[in-house]
Design a protein that fits this description.
With 222 residues, the protein is α+β, with helices and mostly antiparallel strands. The protein has two domains: 3-74, Glutaredoxin; 84-221, Glutathione S-transferase Yfyf (Class Pi), Chain A, domain 2, CATH 1.20.1050. Helices cover 58% and strands 8% of the residues. The chain is built from eleven helices and four strands; from the N terminus they run E-H-E-H-E-E-H-H-H-H-H-H-H-H-H. It has helices at 12-23, 40-45, 64-74, 84-109, 113-128, 131-135, 147-164, 176-186, 189-192, 199-209, 213-221, and strands spanning 3-7, 29-32, 53-56, 59-62. The protein has a four-stranded mixed beta sheet, with helices on one face. The relative contact order is 0.13.
């Protein structure tokens, strides 16, 4: 089986698939495209015009949640729970995580202080809701790794970058259980190896080019 991911270098949803593949130790290739000017062949294979796209022996799968579910069905070890109810709950929280990634992006892309503060408050509020499922033991088990972990690791990758830049939410703004979960995930090799070399600079430069109020402010203070 030949697997190829089509990606944009900063896409957190592609990162989910990369982490899943690395956890399962599956060989794959990856091709990065410019989503602002995608090649014609990409327009043909991606009905939604989004990444990730996974090509399996030339056949196309799109949408990150569908891709990671497919990978979990085909390759061991299984990262979703066996119990149907718990598996459904995990999938629901993965969708919640997709919304958090969009909240985080909106916060980083805000072009003035008022918009940034409003979007930052939304992000912090929604992030804090993760404390409940973690505290109940629904996911984020210290001894294992699940598809929820793979889905949320890209969020913590970006939080780590912004935290290093003096960005809020700081550790004081994040529930301890959420913070500890993020730290564990960032130490995992599959997560550390799921982004390109120089990812942090790519991320910063991207948002500066988009006239991000936050990133321009940070750059000016250096």
């Amino acid at each position: 089986m030949t697997l190829k991911l089509v990606s944009f270098v900063l896409c957190p949803f592609v990162q989910r698939a990369v982490i899943t593949l690395r956890e399962k130790q599956v060989d794959f290739s990856i091709e990065y495209i410019d989503l602002s000017a995608p090649p014609e062949w990409f327009r043909v294979i991606s009905p939604l015009g989004k990444v990730p796209v996974l090509q399996v022996d030339g056949e196309v799968i799109f949408e990150s949640s569908v891709i990671i579910d497919y990978l979990d069905e085909v390759f061991a070890p299984r990262l979703h729970p066996k119990d149907p109810l718990k598996r459904a709950q995990h999938k629901a929280w993965i969708e919640y995580g997709s919304g958090l990634l969009m909240d985080q992006h909106a916060m980083s892309a805000a072009q003035d202080e008022a918009d940034y503060l409003q979007k930052s408050a939304v992000f912090r509020r929604n992030l804090s809701r993760l404390a409940s499922p973690i505290g109940s033991g629904l996911f984020a088990e210290k001894g294992g790794f699940s598809m929820v972990d793979a889905a949320y690791a890209p969020l913590f990758t970006r939080m780590d970058i912004l935290g290093d830049l003096g960005h809020v939410p700081s550790e004081a703004d994040v529930p301890e259980a959420v913070s500890e979960w993020g730290k564990r995930l960032l130490q995992r090799p599959s997560v550390a190896d799921s982004v390109v070399a120089g990812f942090e600079l790519e991320y910063i430069d991207y948002f500066i080019e988009k006239k991000s109020w936050l990133l321009q402010r940070i750059k000016a203070s250096r």
